[in-house]
Amino acid sequence: MTCNHYVRFKSIQVATTITENEKVISNKVQTIEDLHLGLSAMGRAFLFRGYKDLDDLADYGIANPIVSLEDWVEILNNRNVVIVDEHRNQVEIDEFLGMVKRKRNGINHYDYLVKKGYSLEDNWKDSDGNSFCGSHFS
């Protein structure tokens, strides 16, 4: 069983139109797409989605690449985001980090690629051994 996880940004942009009498006559609310956090699969360590290209993060107001769990935790601790699974169920940060910790002994995606002799292009491990993929996956 697999399950993708996403970071949903609660921040919205609001444009307001005002009449001559200074009364609001319309509001336009725009939200942005969820940011892919990674994939949980049975028997495997959590596979994080990494973002080295800042252009991929511009719409989210993120100014630094996401290349480690520490980078993700900094974003997750922002009060304007929530974690959701692929079924759009909200997952608490502590629950998510607990799941990542429990799955650490599973098959590590990066190690699997090395063992099989596959290309490591756009794949890496952070200093804690968490596996990252810098390209789209699901």
Describe this protein's structure.
There is one protein chain. This protein has three helices and nine strands. The protein has 138 residues and is α+β, with helices and mostly antiparallel strands. It has one domain. The strands form two sheets. It has a seven-stranded mixed β-sheet, with helices on both faces. A hairpin with a 5-residue loop joins β4 and β5. The longest helix has 10 residues, at 93-102. The two termini are 12 Å apart. Residues 12-17 have low confidence and may be disordered.
Quickly describe the structure.
Helix content is 19%, strand content 32%. The protein has 138 residues and is an alpha+beta fold. It is globular.
Order of adjacent strands in the largest pleated sheet: 7-6-1-4-5-9-8
State the distance separating the first and last CA atoms. 12 Å
**Number of distinct helices:** 3
The run of helices and strands is: EEEEEHEEHHEE
Q: What integer value in Å does the Rg equal?
A: 18 Å
Shape: globular
- Please tell me the total number of domains: 1
Q: Tell me how many strands there are.
A: 9
Percentage of residues assigned to helices: 10-25%
Q: What is the arithmetic mean of pLDDT?
A: 85
Indicate the structural class: alpha+beta
Low-confidence parts: 12-17
Instruction: Please identify the oligomeric state.
Output: single chain
Bin the strand percentage. Answer: 25-35%
Major sheet characteristics: 7 strands, mixed
Could you name the key traits of this structure?
138 residues; alpha+beta; seven-stranded mixed sheet; two-stranded antiparallel sheet; 19% helix
